[in-house]
Amino acid sequence: xxxxxxxxRNPFDTSPVRLPMVERRGRPPLxxxxxxxxxxxxxxxxxxxxxxxxxxxxxxxxxxxxLGIESAREHGKTRIHWTQSNLALLGRFSDAAIAARMGxxxxxxxxxxxxxxxxxxxxxxxLPDDACSLLGxxxxxxxxxxxxxxxxxVRRRRHELGIxxxxxxxxxxxxxxxxxxxxxxxxxxxxxxxxxxxxxKKRNQLGIKRFARVWTESEIEMLGKFxxxxxxxxxxxxxxxxxxxxxxxxxxxxxxxxxxxxxxxRVFESRPFRSATDGRNxxxxxxxxxxxxxxxxxxxMFGATYNEVRDERIRRGIPPFRSQQWKPEEVxxxxxxxxxxxxxxxxxxxxxxxxxxxxxxIPKYVYQWTDExxxxxxTVADEQLAKRTGLSIRTIGTVRRERGIPSFGNVxxxx
Length: 415
Description:
27 helices, 415 residues, mainly alpha, disordered C terminus
């Protein structure tokens, strides 16, 4: 092996002397130890010496053990003088943060903390003393919101102290109680911005009967003409109320073409297969009905299968029945008013109008708010403004919340 070059160099120069890489066969280059660097061994920790001379900690540790030099920790040269200010940091901050602040290792901080019996800092933040004094007197959610902490932290601290939670007794005003029973619970909940279950529970506690809706003639005419779900959506009431009123008047529910098709399939699946020869007469009797009524209806009328009726209609080149035939004056309404209004005029569902408008590429109608209508937001109930503008209650509420305006009930309570 070739000899190292003895070139005069700074004893604390961190650049190591390296052997030619061809003779090291891919192993790391050797570090050249000088008397000055050897003199550092044992006077400080191996990590500190390695940082000064530019070698690895393993290299410094191996060299110190080879020369039989005790470590600085063994003869007490690395003892750290802990001041009162440094001791006060233990437990309040993490061991890593204290170690970085003092320039020592994390294990040194942890060892000192264990020796004086200080527990490690918990990762869970502590609840302020002011918040602890309010436990049990206010709901956990209000305390968490006031001190900007999680509700789980408040609940855990309350359980640790053995404090029962504050009962959620809401103070009802006379105006709020007067609304119970005058309208559906859902409408009262929307106006007061309270849960529906809370309205229902309070009304039952006071023995107030539920709201009995008075149906107008125009609303009764909608029953059976539209589906129960569509009537409930248009009148902003529950589906149960619509079904109850329709059955009270003896009106059958509106069935869609899909319903008849599914019903026909169920009927003919349970019947034995009939050949086309057996059903030859029904084709002549139903010749005027192809395309004028749904295929499922023809199948039910003449006892044929849905596929037989469809195949016969296709063989004759007749297009299928369309429940909604669009006229030019009806197409002209698209985009000039909300889809709901167009559907009411034509007597069809909103989805039918929406699909036709999208097929023709007509943009939806955008309501132009006047300054007078915008000034009414929050000053009257959303239901009243919806009837005045012809928009839905949901649209009124969305516009009001986008402008940061509280509901009519909240404004009245704040006054």
